[in-house]
Amino acid sequence: MSNTDETTAPAPTFAELGLADAVLDAVTSAGYETPSAIQAATIPVLLDGRDVVGLAQTGTGKTAAFALPILSNLDPKDVSSPQALVLAPTRELALQVCEAFERYASKMPGIRVLPVYGGQGYGPQLTALRRGVHVVVGTPGRIMDHLDKGTLDLSKLRFLVLDEADEMLNMGFAEDVETILADTPDSKQVALFSATMPPQIRRLSKKYLNNPEEIQIKSATKTNVNITQRYLMVSYPQKVDALTRILEVENFEAMIVFTRTKGETETLAEKLRARGFNAAAINGDVTQNVRERLVAQLKDGGLDILVATDVAARGLDVERISHVVNYDLPTDLEAYVHRIGRTGRAGRTGDAISFVTPRERYLLKAIEKHTKATPAEMRMPSADEVNATRLSRFDDQITEALNDTAKVEFFRDVVKHYVDEFNVPEVDVAAALAVVLQGDVPLLLEDRPEPVRRERTERTDRDRDRGDRGDRPGRGERGPRESSRSRGNGQPMAVYRISVGKRHRVEPRQIVGAIANEGGLRRGDFGNITIRPDFSLVELPADLAAETYRALEATRISGKLIELRPDEGGGSTGPKGGRGSSEHQDVDGGWSDQARKKPRRKD
Ligand code: AMP
What is the rounded distance in angstroms from the CA atom of residue 578 to the CA atom of residue 544? Predict the structure, then answer.
């Protein structure tokens, strides 16, 4: 058993792990800075040809831990039958693993990865299998169906991965998994990943794996008791909105917001600046000079929000940091402890807020176990709370301005002249001046339904292949408005909003081009597109995966981030009945100039 203790072992770089150059290239373009603990421990062992049993949860980076070494060892020329098979418990996970493989193979032209799951027609699967693929990612039920029918040849299989093995057994796939393990070549290399190690998995591993290396990430680090830990259940597309609401209502001094990749630090900082917050990005690509400047600004109050990756924030010691937000949960538990330790410095108290998507619940449990702390669940700040803060800031601004007696004296005469001349009450003049100050942006946030926690739904299918595991909004969770349209294959469409419109000289073909190319969608996935002055509405499949949102994070049209998100307003993509720009309220609410100012810390 190898126990990786990050506190003693210096983290290796991806370049030191022995991966193929094309794979390394893809990892760099994915924006990953350092291997997560499970990756650092697993990749060299798998590259060495050994079997692995890895104790790891979703969200730890385990997909790359097996996908990168498999891709490094594939024979690109051989598509006579699949070289690698990944078994996953659910359709959602199979699709996610597939998308991850495709991303990591992006610099290896010609590598074909096929998802195979129940509920999907056999036709396209058979065509793809006949054409030849390198990697198959599937649910055990459907893989068994193909084996029974003789439509999947695993006689030359070189790599077999059991992903979320405990979950597969819980879902009743034990027999299918054993059959697949037994009926594939003895020479294959096996990697088994499981969040827990029940006796059934031990037995499976003993029987079918060849002297496997057991990898478990261990650490005894505890978190600082001065730090209050909270978490917010949130779906991927809600994150920006959630963060901006938190920035408005939390009483913070300075904040570090952690994202997973370098690219995301830049795009998130840009989105926050566009909403009037004083934010900058820091990541491994930032030069030492810039880093020093940003840290100095954070210390002296010139900067309030730093959006950072783990690497960039290492060792940061700034007393002003009152809050840490894990916008993305870290890929390993030790990183969580390091991140939240950036606050609560020098005996002060600190706050740590983690965004948890439905499929990261497991990771939250692991964090609780690891840190011996139980983060409390928090609610998304309501529109009422946000508005109360905006109104009290509005009052504060008036009070502050009244203190500048010389200026007030001057304007008092100007206002008095108006009141006398036009016979208008003073309070109306004050209200009119507030209108001038506010501009077109509403002072108050429109009330919208709160996100509801997703309940797991039981579903049975002939293949016992379950879905419902992704970051997609579930029942009761805030999602895009359903559109009346459906795709040719009957899948429902929904209306999404992007932040580019007529003002940015955007045309439908640019929208389709950008979203299709960068989000990996097909032209057939698009429905109506309506271009309004400041934004556009696009009909897309209702079940867009978190990975698609992630892939579109940095997408720009006419130089502007598109910020794709579900449309929750009354906008219509149809020819009639749409809201005009004058009625338009941005998804994040109207950010007035006063609202943009950071609230003062009240203690
Ligand atoms: P997984 O546990 O495989 O589901 O991965 C969780 C998330 O972490 C995915 O969104 C990956 O893209 C991301 N990820 C995986 N490895 C790394 C890494 N070394 N650095 C940053 N993000 C990563």
Answer: 23
